[in-house]
Design goal:
globular; single chain; mainly alpha
Amino acid sequence: MPGGEEDVEKNRGGVGIGNQYAIYEERDTQWTSWLIPFFIVTNVAMFVVEMYINNCPKHIRDDFGFGDGSGDRKCVARFLGRFSFQPSSENPLFGPSASTLEKLGALEWKKVVDQHQAWRLISCVWLHAGIIHLIANMLSLAVIGIRLEQQCGFVRVGIIYLLSGFGGSILSSLFIQKSISVGASGALFGLLGAMLAELITNWTIYTNKVAALVTILVIVLINLAVGILPHVDNFAHIGGFLTGVLLGFILLPRPQLGWIDRRHRPVDVHVKSKYKAYQYVLWLLSLILLVVWLTVGLVMLFRGENGYRHCHWCRYLSCVPTSKWKCDGET
């Protein structure tokens, strides 16, 4: 696996987001958020492990045979000792080497397909290419995830986070096959997708629905636009987002208001169904599409399929070449 800046920077760029939840109405039930903080702590702990194992000074000494390198081959923040970062020429995000990430479970197509290391589809979600990558993702996770967990509970949010990360890894592996990929942004985009689905499937109970819809779509589009920059794995973003949308339709429909207060209604007033007809339709279609997507994606992946053979223009979803940068040009 070739090292250097190209490998390390194939990260899943962070999801910047403001306090868009102000447009949502408060629910009667509020859960205490503990799972998302746990995920944040786990990601930070994993980054500490990355840097401990990376041990930049030792690797530099091994490469040069003495000292701590020279010129561009000097560790960054050397006062941190073995926790210092790789030279900026190798990893401008201030993190470990590509080989360390690969060792700890970064997503790499050859290892997943040829060596049957399917666990990398999950492990890569808990790794980050650098301290900048980590901070951007964890701040986004705190803003998005904690509020969503308070509204929907830890079980549903946990399922959405993990399966969206998994779905993002599948789509990433089908297209990104010449470099490694790490990061939680596929899972983060899944939470955004679930927010969008939750708004749509519960459309009738919101008052500021148009403002909410526009806000979410603008946030998603801005972050997807950032993903067309080189060395950012936009396929993980897209795969995570689509998986999150489907899971949102499945896990986040709310009962219609008449069902909630049915005990306080007159005896002769009945609400026949807990959910509206369109919610049942969206639930069924999303369940079918989710099963089909994950099944077909995994089958194509382990058959060694290259997504670009089936979708030549899809390369522009992840990187658009300009006069200022070039793309990987995977085929």
